[in-house]
Amino acid sequence: MQLTATLPVGFDFPSNGPVAFGLSNIELAAKYRILHQDTFVFDVAVFPRVFLPSGSRSVGDRQASVLLPIWVQKDWGKWSAFGGGGCQISAAGRSHDFCLYGGTVTRQIAPTLQLGIELFHQTADGIGNPATTSLGIGAKYDLNDNIHLLGYAAKGIQNARTANQYSWYTAILFTF
User: Fold this and answer.
1) What is the pTM of this model?
2) Contact 158, 131 (CB under 8 A)
3) From the first residue on, what is the mean pLDDT of each consecutive set of 10 residues in the chain (176 residues)?
């Protein structure tokens, strides 16, 4: 079982308003692998997540939501492919519910460096909001067994001009 707590600082740079910055939606999650590659062809896991209301008036969602995804993974030496998807159900009501899915291929380049590429799609998350698809690249650098640096950048390839022109994040991952 993998337990996750994410404390994000978010920003928004809309084309029709001021830049916003603040505490975004806190995520609490538990990932449980129900099938394993050593006894089945793939790893299969459920990874339900709860997103708490944002602490900011200008960044993140002001209501709670739950994401219910299923993930599948296969490893071959230094290569790994994984993907899946699910739907997010919002306390704001059915008009804000959406589904997402994606796939990623990664390669362990060096003992401490992993690189990957991802294709990601999300259905419309509100009335008048279009679906989005993006293509991204990411990296994970291991400082040691417990501290890892993460970086990701993506370019929207569907409805990018109105919904998701660019996305990026940096993070520090602590593992125990």
Assistant:
1) 0.83
2) yes
3) 88 75 89 94 96 84 92 97 96 86 98 98 91 97 98 95 87 91
